[in-house]
Structures are given as C-alpha cells and as structure tokens.
Write a structure and sequence with these properties.
alpha+beta; 2 domains; four-stranded mixed β-sheet; three-stranded antiparallel β-sheet; about 30% helix
Length: about 170
C-alpha cells in the first residue's frame, strides 16, 4: 500500500521520550530509524544532521559536501536530546529505507506488488539520470517494515549508482 504522509504509528507517549543522546540512539535503533543522515551517538555520515559535544556545549549541526554548519547550541544533553527527538520524529525520511533501485519499470512494479501483498507501506520515486533515457526508480519502505523486507533489497536494489553517489 502506498505510504500515507500522516502515518505516525511509531510515536510513543511523551513520557517515554529519550533523556540522553545514548537513549536517543537506542530509541532510533529500536524503532528502525535510518542513521544514514543522522549522526546520533557518534556514527559517521556523509551528509545530514548530528549532535556533537564540544566543551560544555552540545551542538546540533548540518553537514553536506564537506561543509558543516552549526545550527543550534544547547547547555544540556537533555535539551539537545529533546530538540533532536522532535526534529527526527517529524522527518518521515528519517524512517525511510531504500530497498529498491532500478531503471526497470517492470521490476519496480513487481516490487510494489510484493510490498502490497505483504501489507507494507512504500513510496516509489523517480529520478532522472544524466545521459540515460530511463530514470532511476527508488522504492522506500518505512520504520520496522525494514525487518520484513530484508531479503527483497538483495533482489531489487541494483548497484547502478555512479561512484560517489549514495542514497
């Protein structure tokens, strides 16, 4: 079934919000958030948002193409954790996992059919590729559905990105 933008099934009662950066990283793992664009707890990213402790301050930053911008400063770990939790849970792409990448529309349609039969919400997107008549077709699933679809990525994610490009 196609993804519904207002699907917030991962949200928990406010009193269960993480209280530390380590708790936030664990919460993200437990709820199958994607760490590819969030550096929470020290994981490396090529681009995206992150938390860094610098002296007595905590910094919320954005990094892209080797450039880093410090966006917000916080006096306490609790405050930055609360801020980051709000930002991350509001970002539907923080829960997205790309399990399909192809130029073959039939193959992308086949994957969509399998996901529908499994009751997995998904979103497909097309991206034009320079020098090619066929666009790239990407298929994303959300949250812990990634656990149900692990075997599909091996079949439907083709290694066709130019060197240095990431999804």
């Amino acid at each position: 079934m196609p993804y519904r933008e207002n699907n917030n099934q991962f949200m928990e009662p406010e009193n269960s919000s993480p209280q530390s950066v380590a708790d936030l990283a664990q919460w993200m793992k437990d709820h199958c958030f994607n760490f590819n664009h969030y550096s929470i707890g020290g994981n490396a990213i090529h681009e995206g948002y992150g938390i860094e402790k610098w002296g007595g301050l905590y910094i919320w930053y954005y990094s892209e193409k080797g450039r880093r911008d410090n966006l917000q400063y916080f006096q306490s770990e609790k405050d930055i954790t609360e801020y980051a939790f709000g930002k991350i849970t509001a970002d539907i792409w923080a829960r997205a996992h790309c399990i399909g990448l192809t130029k073959n529309a039939v193959k992308a349609g086949e994957l969509a059919g399998i996901l529908q039969s499994m009751g997995v919400e998904y979103k497909q997107d097309t991206i034009p590729e320079a020098g090619s008549e066929k666009p790239l077709i990407l298929t994303y699933i959300f949250g812990c559905d990634v656990r149900k679809t692990e075997t599909l990525k091996a079949i439907y994610f083709e290694n066709i990105l130019p060197v240095g490009h990431r999804i």
